[in-house]
Amino acid sequence: MVGTRSLGTLGYFRKSASRLRRRFNGDTREYDALLVCAEFVLIDQTKSRLSSASVDNLLPVLAEFPKVFPEYADRRLIGVLASLYPDPSIVTYATPKGVLVMGMGDETMDVLNPSALGIGD
Q: Which residues pair with 18 in a beta bridge?
């Protein structure tokens, strides 16, 4: 559990976890990182290399999430794919699907396509 911290436009987050596992329908679901805010839940998958399949594979994870974590079903889900240096074509591919892509900026990881949120840049 983490104390509340600001995420700018998204507000404050209340809980975070990494390498989170949960049993669901006899199988294990694993999440690289989960960040819970008052109105949002960010679900991150971190890869050494992103592809269009990475984006496509994240979409069913997002669709299933409210069933796996019903306690967060009232929050908007935001999928995040992170990699050190994602190809610009992946950023373009992920944006209309509403998936954020993070990559290395000057000193920190940056969101490369904030417009994927549909709430302004």
A: 33
Spatial separation of the C-alpha atoms in residues 92 and 99, rounded to whole Å: 10
Q: In angstroms, rounded to a whole number, what is the distance separating the alpha carbons of residues 53 and 3? A: 35
Q: Which has the higher per-residue pLDDT, 15 or 70?
A: 70
Q: What is the pLDDT of residue 3?
A: 41
Secondary structure, 3-state, 39-102: CEEEEEEECCCCCHHHHHHHHHHHHHHHHHCHHHCCCEEEEEEECCCCCHHHHHHHHHHCEEEE
**Cα angle 55, 60, 64; round to 5:** 140
- What three-state secondary structure class fits 8? helix
